[in-house]
Amino acid sequence: MAGTPDASRHVPDYAGRSVASGVEGSNMSSPHLLLAGERLALVIPRQETLTEYHIWENDPATILGRGNRFPQSWEVRAEAWERQLDDQDHATFEVVRLKDKQPVGVTALRIEPRLRAAEFTIVLAPAQRGKRYAEEATRLTLDWGFHLGALSTAWLRVLEPNRAGIAAFAKAGFRFAGRLRRTGHWLGQSVDVLLMDALPEDFPGPSAMCVALGS
User: Fold this and answer.
1) pTM: predicted TM-score of the whole model, two decimal places
2) Which of 152, 184, 208 lies closest to 64, judged by CA?
3) Which of 3, 15, 92, 133 is 20 to 30 Å from 123 at the Cα level?
4) How far is Cα 148 from Cα 158, in angstroms, rounded to an integer?
5) Which stretches make up the N-acetyltransferase domain (predicted)?
6) Is a pLDDT exceeding 90 seen at residue 28?
7) Structural domains in the chain (count)
8) pLDDT: which is higher, 163 or 19
9) Could you tell me if residue 199 is inside a domain?
10) Which three-class secondary structure state does DSSP give residue 64?
């Protein structure tokens, strides 16, 4: 399920400190920038940031927005990371803020090669929600997928009550494609899961990828 509700909170990490917006003040390696937008950039995911990804994904608002029900153990997350390293059909991007290179989220494209289609997902750091980062991170990921990844379509699932997520995805180029009635859960209630998709011609532009490659 793509998207998390537009909420901000502080989440304690394993050492008990407050992780509000990523990894401020840590001695992390410099990210390898892949594609830069106005405020954000896609970078190669770093294993040293995996703990932060895990914290973001286990935030209650993230669990709610993604349609999950329970937190995921560290061991399960670490095993998934190892599997994805060798999976050419699972493209993951870390999202950083350009001004300070701070990680603010993760996006992914789960690719079906025969169809040249991909499912899009996104997770933002809890304190980075409400800043319109979801829209730009989604647009940058679609930009890569369409203009370098040669995708013919991208799609996502989002719970109907997640209005902030739906609005961000629509601004990035996704369109309503259908619904699965009462197949999701939101605060104890059965809700519809909306399907959204995007074609290359839906991309709102301009393309940062085309500009970067001089096309």
Assistant:
1) 0.86
2) 184
3) 15
4) 25
5) 53-200
6) no
7) 1
8) 163
9) yes
10) helix
| Radius of gyration, alpha carbons of the chain | 16
Distance CA 190, CA 186 (A): 6
Beta strands 117-124; 103-112: pairing state = antiparallel
Within a 10 A sphere around the Cβ of 121, how many other Cβ atoms?
Answer: 18
Which of 215, 38, 37 is closest to 140 using CA atoms? 37
Tokens describing residue 10: 């502080």
Q: For residues 18 and 127, what is the distance between their CA atoms, to the nearest angstrom?
A: 11
- Residue 3 domain-assigned (yes or no): no
Take residue 23 and report the two structure tokens written for it. 């990894």
Residue 189 lies in domain? 11-212
Is there a domain that residue 2 lies in?
no
Is 19 a residue whose pLDDT tops 60?
no
Query: What CATH number has the domain bearing residue 119?
Result: 3.40.630.30
CB-based contact 122:3 (threshold 8 Å): yes
Q: How far apart are the first and last CA of the chain?
A: 33
What is the total residue count of the chain? 215
